[in-house]
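Annotated sample (chain length 227).
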Amino acid sequence: MTRRITADRISVAGVELVGDLIVEDHAVGLVLFAHGSGSSRHSPRNRAVASALNRRGLATLLVDLLTADEERLDEQTGQLRFDIGLLADRVVGIVDWLGGQPDTAMLPLGLFGASTGAAAALVAAAARPAAVRAVVSRGGRPDLSGPALLEVQAPTLLIVGERDTYVWELNERARNSLRALAELRIIPTATHLFEEPGTLDQVAEQAGDWFGTYLPPAAGAAGREGR
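Output written by the structure step:
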C-alpha cells in the first residue's frame, strides 16, 4: 500500500518549498529529484521516472526548487534556473530535511538530476557525501557543477540522448573528470528531452537499475527479509 504525503512546507534556507513525497510501505530507498531549466515537480518526464521507481519499491520526492515568486521571475529572465549555487543549496537543505523526517530518515538516499538540476545534484552530493549514496543525471549539465565535480563520492550514472550531441560531449568530459565510479549511457535516437517513443522508459529502467545496485538496503530491511 502506498502512503502519499504532500510536503507543502519544506523550510530551506529561509524559504518554503513545495514537494510531493511518495513513500511505499517497506520502501528500500529514496530518490530526490532535482529539476532544472525551468522545470518543476509537475514535469511529466520526471513524474514518469518517479512512478517507475515507485514500482521498484523506492520512495520519491519531487520538489520545486524555486518559490512561486521566483518561478515567475525566472519565466521572465531565465536567470535563476542557471543559479547552480542557489539550487544546490536548496537540494542540500532538502537532503538535511529528509534526514530529520521519521518516514525518510532511515532510507538510503539517491539524487536524480535533470538538465541544470543535475549540476545542483552533483554539488549537493559533494557537500553531503555521507547522505547521498548514488546519483543519476538525465540530459544533465554536470559541467556547471564546477570544482565540486571532483569531490563527488557517490556512484554516478550519466544518461544522455544519442542526438543530444552537445550535452553528450559535456557528459563525456564530466565522466572522465569524476573521481567516483561513473558511467555514461547513451540512449539511441533520443534528443535532449527524451520525447521519442520508448526512450524515457529506457531512462527509468537504467536509473532504477543504478539505484537498485548502489543504494544500500534500508535500515531494517534485512530483519524484515529474515522473518
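Annotation: The chain is about 35% helix and 25% strand.
Annotation: The domain at 25-39+83-215 is CATH 3.40.50.1820 (Rossmann fold).
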